[in-house]
Amino acid sequence: MASALENYVNNVRTKSSEGNFRIMVEQLNDSVEVLSRYWELLDNVLETLDFQQHSLGVLYVLLVKFNGASSPNVNANLPQMFNLYKEFISQCNGEQVRYATYTYYDLCHMFTSLIVEHPLCIQGIKVVAQAIEKIRLCDSQQTSIHADLCQISLKARCFKTALSFLDVDITTIATTSEVRGQNSNDANNDAKYFLLYYYYGGMIYTAVKNFDRALYFFEVCISTPAAAMSHIMLEAYKKFVLVSLILHGKVLPIPKSSGPVISRFMKPLAQAYHDLGNAYATSTNEELRIVMNKCSETFIRDKNMGLVKQVVTSLYKKNIQRLTKTFLTLSLSDVASRAQLNDAAEAEKYILI
Q1: For residue 283, what is the enclosing H or E element?
Q2: 94 in any annotated domain
Q3: DSSP state for residue 183 in the 8-state scheme
Q4: Which residues form the PCI domain (predicted)?
């Protein structure tokens, strides 16, 4: 093993035994470049460290290893990388890795990026869920890894584990700046994964047809204070419009808590969806279908055509219910008249009996 790596291992062992984790993290940050130069020898380093006792040292080695795993042979190495990550998450010391929350998050994001398009994706759900359990301080605390769990669950179309997290209302948010200090890049990443959690969460609730909860998640996403509108918020707004139509039969207004920039630009950038809402308001099935066909390229590009078709179906159901109620009322009135009853309500009472 190269002398630089030997120094790394000795430093990790010494500082871990002394419990100087905060100082250790500062030194480990400076060691990333050194570790990167010896990428091919990192497996040897891992063999000399204990995943539980030397969690911080192992964390940084894995970070560098995953960061360099974008080679053409990544698919061949993926099972090994998967098992390494799984072993680390299972054995690592939660108290130690909380001294480097941002690095822990980065590793989890890299893992998600590697497996999200791979058949191992479905197996990664429980591993990422365990990564959340390891780092969070309570069940109602949101971490940026929550978004990873939702993303993997959507890709695998397996929602049970993600829903067990989504169903718990968030009361506190763990941010990277708590450890590293305020940094604009950290704040941007915190905001990104906060929005992704509510966007992906809304998609999961939509997939299981829990439209009330889906609407709430999309609403949180688009009403989060922001100086500029992000792509995530725009996509959430499009789904917010569609779920509003399915659930309430109309496009709900943007929450007042949304910033003026969001309110000003959201609607023009989602014009096709408002055209659909306007057509829905006419209660005319044919007009709604005309708009759907006219804007089909937009809906398909946004991957929202399935949801748009549910909007069309919801109008059919709404119109059938309205017509059924009308004709039922007429027939009940006729029954009341023929039976010499006081009114349709009394006739309905007899019919229900």
Answers
A1: none
A2: yes
A3: -
A4: 213-353
